[in-house]
Design brief:
- It is a single chain.
- By secondary structure, this protein is α/β, with parallel strands linked by helices.
- It is 40% helix and 14% strand.
- It contains 16 helices and 15 strands.
- The strands form three sheets. A seven-stranded mixed sheet has the order 5-11-10-9-8-6-7, sandwiched between helices. Strands 1-12-13-15 form a four-stranded antiparallel sheet.
- Helix 5 packs across helix 12, helix 6 crosses helix 11 and helix 13 runs parallel beside helix 16.
- The two termini are 33 Å apart.
């Protein structure tokens, strides 16, 4: 885990200049993608909003892709991009990785679905146990399902209803965690007692009343919540490195401190490692921090691009599944295609050699971006954790969500546009999301990213 922060003689960024640059880049963006515009118009007739997820609807328009290979993706207009979007963290294997193609191809000839276990599931559970230090596992199909099961399981084991959730963390779109996901500054309330802001429409007040919101990196806030709700808190769920507000690492000692506080109160600790689970290292933050939670949730990179998720836990917690006190179910849990892809990902893709390659690329990218920032004397800094990284468009480190709210959204959007128009595909929420390196990226891919970023810094600083 590393954070590279570059100081500078503060140079004000002209608001008008940024607005002009965004307008110019959006025009370039639209001229490059007439076929996407045609598909959007057609899609609106029968796809709600003209896309298959609201997160695919970006400004000035959604990008429709055709295919991907290696470290590249190609849009329907035939334009090639270095893919650092990575499917929001799922595509650490890159695209059409031979090991995954072979594993899925073999399995698809043997059957695509049985709703019964297959032998690969045992191997995967053994490997996850080795990597994450938790003995028992179950599978699901998405990060949302994994965190939903984790919250339900914690309540079943403890007999308690409340959960503590960190302000600004996203844990999927089930009711229990759709609270204070990306609230606005005028909604959050006092820091000592943040308001539980609904993260979407359709979230009843009764659900929100079961969630106690606390800031990240603040053990005292967790202690206060546990005292104020003594004997009522089932668990605390958090990303051990926040990755839905840029990237916010935990302060030294924070994870161990909240684990000890929770256990003293008879509550459980749940890590949402859906994003961090394999992108930050072979055993995620669980392994690198040495602070093992009671339950860990995995998804995204786990299947190398195939939909799969997992929850792992201690014997005490997971025994509630084993003896039927909590029924963890799902027709597609342990689906043979997903298990084949996952075994190939863990055994042939996410190897020690692959992580050494990712670490070299990530270190090179981080240092070169920091050099660009220093050269142009802009008050930004780079934060990188494993294969994930982001530029934070402010000088000071971000320790919690309320710091993140102070960042100018437009700079993230401009960065996204300039990277896109320069042939690098990033998640469209430039301030919120981050880049992902895959095992199939190389130095030339990093070169393209750095060149685009240098153009951004020069344009903003001029």
């Amino acid at each position: 885990m590393s954070s590279s922060i570059v100081g500078s003689a503060a140079q004000d960024v002209s608001s008008d200049r940024v607005d002009r640059l965004i307008a110019d880049e959006e025009q370039v963006f639209l001229r490059r993608q007439p076929r996407s515009a045609e598909l959007i118009a057609r899609a609106r007739e029968h796809l709600a909003g003209g896309a298959t997820s609201n997160w695919q609807i970006a400004q000035p328009q959604a990008v429709w892709l055709s295919h991907g290979h290696g470290s590249k993706v190609y849009d329907v207009d035939g334009t090639e991009y270095v893919d650092m979007h990575g499917g929001y963290g799922a595509s650490i294997a890159g695209h059409a990785h031979p090991a995954i193609v072979d594993a899925v191809s073999q399995q698809i000839r043997r059957g695509t679905h049985f709703a019964q276990p297959t032998e690969n599931a045992i191997w995967i559970a053994e490997e996850l146990s080795r990597r994450f230090g938790l003995p028992l596992w179950r599978f699901a199909n998405s990060g949302t399902e994994a965190t939903m099961d984790a919250v339900h399981l914690a309540r079943a084991v403890t007999g308690r209803d409340l959960i503590i959730k960190v302000e600004g963390c996203y844990h999927g779109h089930h009711d229990s965690v759709q609270v204070s996901v990306l609230p606005e500054a005028d909604e959050v309330g006092p820091r000592a007692h943040p308001v539980g802001v609904p993260g979407n429409s359709g979230i009843p007040e009764a659900i929100r009343n079961l969630v106690v919101v606390v800031p990240f990196n603040d053990p005292e806030a967790v202690a206060r919540a546990l005292t104020e709700h003594r004997g009522q808190v089932a668990a605390m769920i958090l990303e051990p490195v926040m990755m839905n507000a840029g990237i916010i690492p935990p302060a030294d000692g924070y994870l161990a401190a909240i684990r000890d506080l929770l256990h003293q109160a008879g509550s459980l600790l749940i890590y949402d490692e859906v994003k961090t689970g394999f992108t930050t290292g072979p055993g995620g933050i669980t392994a690198s921090s040495g602070v093992v939670p009671d339950i860990v949730c995995l998804a995204k990179a786990l299947g190398g691009g195939i939909a799969v998720a997992a929850i792992g836990g201690t014997t005490r917690v997971m025994s509630a599944i084993a003896d039927g006190r909590y029924e963890q179910v799902g027709t597609f849990n342990g689906n043979p295609l997903a298990m084949a892809a996952t075994r190939a990902t863990l055994s042939e893709v996410l190897t020690d050699a692959s992580y050494a390659h990712l670490n070299r690329l990530a270190g090179d990218l981080r240092e070169r971006l920091s050099s660009v920032i220093a050269e142009h004397r802009v008050d930004w800094h780079v934060v990188a954790v494993g294969a994930k990284g982001c530029v934070t468009f402010r000088k000071e480190p971000v320790r919690e969500y309320r710091d993140f709210l102070q960042i100018d959204d437009r700079l993230g959007h401009l960065h996204w546009l300039m990277q896109h128009n320069g042939g690098v595909f990033l998640p469209p929420w430039g301030k919120v999301e981050q880049w992902l390196l895959s095992v199939q990226h190389d130095t030339a891919d990093v070169d393209r990213f750095v060149a685009n970023f240098a153009r951004l810094a020069a344009a903003v600083a001029s």
